[in-house]
Predict the structure.
Amino acid sequence: MTIKIGTRKSRLALAQTEMLIKTLKNRFPNVKIKTVYISTTGDKTLDKPLAALGGKGVFIKELEMSLLSGETDVAVHSAKDLPTKIADGLEISAVLPRGSYGDVFVTRNNFETKDGFVIGTGSLRRKLFAEKIYPNAKFKDIRGNVDTRLKKLLNGEYDALVLAKAGLERLDLCNGEDYTVTPFDADEFLPAPCQGIVAIESRKNSEVSKMLAEISDKNTMLSFETERQVLHSLNADCSTPVGAISKVENDRITLSLSADCKKTVSGTDEISNRIKLAKRLVSEIE
């Protein structure tokens, strides 16, 4: 059997695709893999903010079209880039074990913050949280993959960046010679819902979807479902500065969330009540 995997072309997307291939091969050693490289609207158009392009869906539309047409059997996504609704006939069949979920502050070596220094981020959530820590900073939108953003930092276009730690780790870029990476406290600088999770999409009820279900990480899927419910309950899009993180331990799940980067609410419940927990905490914050 050959499984056709659709992926974006960035180094991070390819690294995450390799993570999936390795996991599939470990569970199904006789399966053959064909990688299909797809450019999305979000990859092609880098001179506009995501909100101007239509939100998070710009990173998955073409991948979903390839699934629906049969060109591919599987699509690999950074879960935080998924819109709240995916295409009819498709599902998130699996998630890989969650990586680091926090954000990091990246500066050139020996850089000292000063009034008016420029932080690059395209995320309103990151901007609002960073403003609390660096009230005298200026913020400038930035697009492009991780490598492109780091080049812009080192070229002096920005003084600092806010990036996802998981992306740097998957590209082995946490220990650069020319820049310094400092983690934020994730309890105070809440990550995007599902940050650090690789989500695997396929056609519903397909043979491949059943195979994917066998490799899905149980606890990561519980967190994925819980944090996605936060987005659904808030009817959030890419312009909504939502932060959320959940942790599963001893048959219970703890969830913290913020809808405006100002007020944060937290709660704990049994895993079976995870969706109710998300809905309850959203009702407390609205």
